[in-house]
User: Fold RNA-directed DNA polymerase from Purpureocillium lilacinum.
Amino acid sequence: METAHLPTWICGKRHDLTLDVMDIPNDVILGIPWLRASNPRVNWKTGHLQWDTPGSVSVTEKRVNSRKRDTPSNESKKALRIYVIAKEPKPVRSERIPEEYRRYGKLFSDELETGLPEHSRWVSEIPLKPGSEPRFRKIYPLNEEKTKALDEYLAENERKGYIRPSTSSAGFPILFVPKKNGKLRLCVDYRQLNNITIKNRYPLPLITELQGKLHGAKWFTTLDLKGAYNLIRIKEGEEWKTAFRTKRGLYEYLVMPFGLTNAPASFQTMINDVLREHLDIFVVVYLDDILVFSKTLEEHRGHVHKILQKLEKANLLVEAEKCEFHKQKVKFLGYEIMPGFIGMDPDKIKAVRDWPPPTKVKEKDQPFVWGNKEQEAFDSIRNKMLEEPIHALPDPSKPFEVETDASDWALGGQLAQRDEQGRLHPVAFYSKKLSGPALNYPIHDKELMAIIEAFKEWKHYLSGTTGTVKVYTNHKNLTSFTATKEPNKRQVRWYEFLSEFNFEIIYRKGSENGRADALSRREDLKPPTEVQRAAIFRETGQGTLQLGSRQVNATWKVEPDQEWIQRIRRAYENDDLASNWETNPACSKEQDTILFNSCYYVPKALQDELVKEFHEHPLHGPQGVHKTLTRLRRT
Assistant:
């Protein structure tokens, strides 16, 4: 007698087995065919099999008489008697977690593999705007490394039941971005789908609502949840909308993938349902942030246990390093909370509060005078910026406006809202010093990074807003960012993050973007010696990009040679670096042109010819090797 395909889970990995039913002392004997099919890693010294997922299998070798179906056989065959041993959860080591909560080891794990969840109230719906349909998009090319990562992703997620082959009329392209561990992560380019999706938002709680809920509370704990999108099913019948194209065929998701614009709203529905029994009684939750509050410490410990038990039962995970337990002063959703007080988080205004006094004047050859009178005036202006009626507390019921800018060395931004008379009031400010590779980003990516950092800084205010967030920048090219034909790996990561927000990028002249400009040019953020970097793209006064040079003679204006540009782009096809530019952290792509460390990349096949032509140009005059190379680097 023989079983049909029997789904069997071994150490978190699913195996569909066909087994002979026999009277043997062991539950299951898995032989050589299974070993070949599953291909585990074998540790012959310890007798264990291992996969990439937690768990191990103890192996004991033994001679047994094998039977195939009901046909007896005296042939002695080699088999493996296998016992499944569940690994104990890794001990929780974070010092932030009190000893009494370390019993919830699974809750604080790095990752947790679960099977395909059942359809429930936790579904992700993708409502489309009337008259719109998801499109079938062009596939992006993949090199050998990405093809291998694709095959692994498809095999792993089909095994888990998260994806399945599709016959959808839609099909979105995939891209890969590097993870911190050096591996590649698959992303689906859902920009077109998100543009036609009707947005579903959860607004931030009003400060007055929080004040009412937290009245009398003296003890607080904050928890930070990890993303758990694999616990949420795509609404039945809507899976086709998530279809993604690969060189291996068309697939669609059965669980909610990253990158969908309504993913945060679906996650909010799930976490509200998980904690519904205690919601607003002693816990407040907004997306992945949880606040537990109580009047006494003893009562608080009981409340925290109840919340952790609910989260663990729902297979949710908590970011241990971002949690705060048993505190009387915490930061939550951009507010500072203490017994009897809720106010704006001081860090949200420190970019202006800590603004240093000026040290020079803009005009040349002018004396700089700074005494007590000037310092008092400076302090007065700075302080008024942080007080009512100029500064205002955030109101989630009103639209937000974001202003951003980037300089060579820093980013700056302002979050603001308008009052009933239409007057703009600042809510929060930020400045961030650039460092490392970011200093060499092209101007387009620096300006885009300024928007990304602003949304990260003010995520709690902007992710659930019911209206469209207006984002003002003096970089015109960013207005079409969401329609970029083929974003680079850095832009893919950024767009995936921005997909959670409902926003519109609006161009504004630099002269009208003074607040963000000033925040990005604080003298205290400027490096001791500004490095002059040559970049092939230059920003014009109208906010657009053009090719140009730092070195311009009085009688000759440098113009890009379109014939050379086309030759260079055609040569990319046979150049190793150009073909794999996405895997090189020093490379980026702008307007179909590849940059290497922010400079124009010329394929090897054309380098000698370009140097020769540049060296012999009649307008350059006599020049040796050093001058020729220096001029090329500057161009």
About this structure: The chain is about 25% helix and 25% strand.
